Every structure is written in structure tokens, then in C-alpha cells.
Amino acid sequence: MIEQELSGFLGLPDELTRFQSSRVVVVPVPFEATTSYGGGTKYGPDAIIEASHQVEFFDEQLACEPCNMGIFTEDPIDVSGGFDTVARLLRQKAVDLVKADKFALFLGGEHSITAPIVEGIFAQIPQLSVLHFDAHADLRDSYEGLTCSHASVMRRVFEMGVPFCSVGIRSFSKEEYDLINKHDLNIFYAHNIRSDCGWMDEVLNRLSDVVYITFDIDAVDISEVRATGTPEPGGLLWHEIITFLKKLAVSGKKVIAADLVELAPQDHDHTSSFYAARLAYKIVTYCTWQHHKVT
Q1: Quick one: which of 112, 258, 270, 285 could link to 213 by a disulfide (CB 3.0–4.6 Å)?
Q2: Measuring CA to CA, which residue among 195, 283, 177, 185 is closest to residue 234?
Q3: What distance in Å separates the CA atoms of residue 26 and residue 49, rounded to the nearest whole number?
Q4: Which segment of 54-58, 129-133, 229-233 scores lowest on mean pLDDT?
Q5: Would the pTM of this model clear 0.85, i.e. be above it?
Q6: CA 180 to CA 99: how far, in whole Å?
Q7: What average pLDDT does the segment 16-31 reach?
Q8: Calpha distance 289→50 (Å, rounded)
Q9: What is the distance between the alpha carbons of residues 132 and 245, in angstroms, rounded to a whole number?
Q10: pLDDT above 60 (res 294)
């Protein structure tokens, strides 16, 4: 007997992968142009999708199979035309999926993809705020001469006037430090989170009722994920992340879309890719919690 080759996120059966009936749309974005240390993020989307075929459909915390809401995986975004072309495609894709009432999960690729996605959604939903998980502040005006750099993505979001909270930050420049203090930005440093049990509620209080999540995988501690171009010690741990996502789910806020970026898969490290795949499934599960019973 020849087994059918799995395709798409989670390798779901056909009846759960039809666009019209699916609540979630996964959009691979294998874009990499401004990475400044370790490369390979362009392989991230494929690695996450491949690893997701090993993820159980059943969620141990919700006691259900969230994938039954339907998850459609699109063909990868065409990244051959450079950042400006990719940005235009991402803005339009974000608008189209919001109008279609789909929850979109964009799989990067490098972190620079976030800015045009947020720009497209913000034009449709001006009450939007951004929940940013990262090791780095990403608030440089430019980096290595590029204003579209992965190290400048939250600076572009800031300039759009979109409010945001950054969680897990533990690496930034003097330029970024000065900007943070001048504008009293909502930065939740990793070292403070360890000693402040109320940080989750504080983050929720500072977000608007409509939220976009951008999750740079280097927000996670290197003891759990190492396959990223700019790893930093002292990061977030799995149960902290999942606990917070659950609190966000039951808070009454609407998470409109999300991205998961900066996985740079390595041949000898299946753990990081599987972690990213499992996190991706948890993100879509909790961000569409009204389809499930949250206990």
C-alpha cells in the first residue's frame, strides 16, 4: 500500500483544507534579504509545515481537535521580486484575508515581512494593536543601510502609529533604548518578566481590543529553540508562552492574524522546527478559541 504524501500545514485530510470552509489560512512567506548573522530563514516555512505533519491534531489542554475548524495552506508568496514587491503582495494578502473573515497565520521568513502585513490590516482596522514577541527590540531606524531590515520592523510599526507591546526583549542598541524611554514604549524585558508574576495582565491591559501577533522565534530561550539566526539567552519558556496565549484567548480581545518568523532550520536539529510547528498550531488554536471549549 502506497501512503499518500502529506501536504499543507498539519497534513490534514482534504475535507479540512478547503478555503471556503476553513477558519484559518496559513501563508508561507520564504523571504530572506536582510538577515545579519545566521541565515536560512527562507527555509523556515517549509520546515515548519513539514514538522507539523508530526504534530498531534488533539490538543491536550482543550481536549478537542482544533484543526476541525479547517486550515487551508496557500502556495508560498512569490518572493522573487525584492522587498517592495513582496511588501505589496503581503499588504494585499492581509487585506484580502481580513475581508474574507479568515484568521491568517503568515510563516516567515525573516521578520521584515511583518510591517507590510500590519500596514494592510491597520488600514482596514484602525483600532489594531500589535503583540510582539522577540529577543530584540527591532526599533532601529535602519540597519546596515536598510530601513526595511528585520532589525527595523517595529520602528516601521511605531511610525505607522500602531500601538504595540513587546515581550521578552533582552537585546537592543543605545539608539533603541533612547527611543523606548523618550516615548515610554510598552517594552516588557525578559529579566523583569522573571520577577513579575503580573506581567501578563499588564500586557493585556495595554493592548487594544483587536490584536495582531508577531512572534519572532528567538523570543524563546535557546535551551528550547536554537535554530534561529540571532539567538539570545534568557528567553521565554514554553509554558509561559502557552499560559499567556490562553489568557489572551479568554480576555475578550479579538486576535485578527499572526505571524511566526525567523526560524532558520538546521539539518541536525529537528527539535526547533517541531517546536515552531507546535507553537504555530497553539497560536491558531488559542487565537480562534471561540471555536473550541477553553477550560
Answers
A1: 258
A2: 195
A3: 10
A4: 229-233
A5: yes
A6: 34
A7: 97
A8: 25
A9: 12
A10: no
